[in-house]
Design goal:
The complex is a heterodimer of chains A (256) and B (231).
Chain A lengths: L4 E5 L17 H9 L2 E4 L7 H14 L5 E8 L5 E5 L3 E5 L6 E3 L2 E3 L10 H14 L2 H18 L5 E5 L12 H13 L11 E2 L12 H8 L17 H19 L1
Parallel strand pairs in A: 1-2, 1-3, 3-8, 8-9
Antiparallel strand pairs in A: 4-5, 6-7
Chain B lengths: L11 H9 L13 H14 L6 E5 L5 E5 L3 E5 L15 H10 L2 H18 L5 E5 L5 H7 L4 H14 L11 E2 L12 H8 L17 H19 L1
The chains are: A alpha/beta (256), B mainly alpha (231).
Amino acid sequence: MSRKKLIAIGCSFTRYRGQGIDDIPVWPTLLSEKLDMECVNLGRAGMGNEYISAKLIDTILSEKKEDIGLVVLMWSGWQRMDFEDTNDNWVKLRPSPGPGTRNGILYKPEAFLNIQNYKTMIMLNNIMLKCNNAHNATMKSLRHFLIAQKLLEDIPYLMVQGIGPVYLDEFIERKSKHIWLQSFLNSKIFDEIDEKKFIGWPILKPIGGYTINNMLDKIDPEQKELRMSDKDTHPNAEGHKIISQEIYNAYEKIYT
Amino acid sequence: MSPDFDHNFPRWPQHLADKLDMECVNLGAAGQGNEYILSKLIDTVLTEKNIGLVVLMWSEWTRQDFQDPANGWYSFHPHRDNSETEKYPIDSKSRNSILQYNNTYDVTMKSLRHFLIAQMLLKDIPYLMIQGTSPLGRHCRAVYAKNRRAFFKLVINAMIDSKIFNEINPDQFIGWPILKQIGGYTVGDILNKIYPERNQLKISAEDHHPNAEGHKIMSQEIYNAYEKVYL
């Protein structure tokens, strides 16, 4: 009898740089070994939650339920925008609070397709950021979470938030941050999420949740041991071991 | 969920509710797209207990919906030159750039996902769906003005090749598979068939939304489908 499948969907925290063969063993590979499952890694660098939802739907429609051992969704940045083209080509749009440096992070305006003029680029970046503001992105991501949960009702699954969800630099005023947190907590979806199967729920540190980034930073606050380098904060081989163990622990609690 | 303009006549949801002896909850909002519709559906499924029927009238596929806590929902129509009415007006070059992302294939696939998700959310609730306005008519004029054939080839292939296509329940999606070229239809097509000039069923020469008579016809079409599936 063939092994069941571990299906992992996420961004570059799931499939580093999206190369054909990953540079380092990433958490889906390590987890599938622990679980003795076949690894299907659908992670793609740069992608957001629209991509993750689309790939989940593809999976549900193409894989036989009895062949799936576990689906793990590692959710990406909520303000990332994903667009699909033919032949499974996906294009990303990441309007950011740029240009400039804030809290030591360099933000560049998005390089929009067919736009050469720098001022136009900044204008479009700012408009798209206003449209896809933190509140909008949060509500949309909550919908993604709920829909995924419903789609996976009859299939073993776990979810976790990989990277930081929104650009907190947007919240220069404390009041705005408060409004945003309220909208997250007050959403009708908030209480519908099955927190046993969402590792780190409710995601945000101020309300007792955590992301994979938070988890790694707790162990390695200087980001020296578990990250690729000073400039590349993706988890390194050791970081991926810790991530796979965290997910395995959650799996054990629920499914064994 | 149909657009709700400020004209003083009953819309199809009210007519239909009267026919079915149900209370009407019309969550339509002018200008919004399918993300809004799906969001309102999720709200409804999570809050309402006594549902007799949900009808989703899907909107143009290219519309992008956004929300913020202060102003609620707004919609961006990259396929229209709405610089005078849009919240964040942009020039045509910028609009064309956005259309590279929000391209024909992308919006087709996103809408198919919306349909499937809605169907899944409504599996235990009586429902019907229908495409209201032409899904991509204006988008086609904006992007493929000179090559409509290539445009429809792309959309039809995207739809038919998608894993979702065969999952949609045609009994509960009135006019499925939507596009005339593959045997489907929209509300617009229904009205056009009755009055090809549509003058009798439009609000005015400038405003092509269905008038009072148009809304009666729409409600009858949905009622007929309801009868077939649920009575």
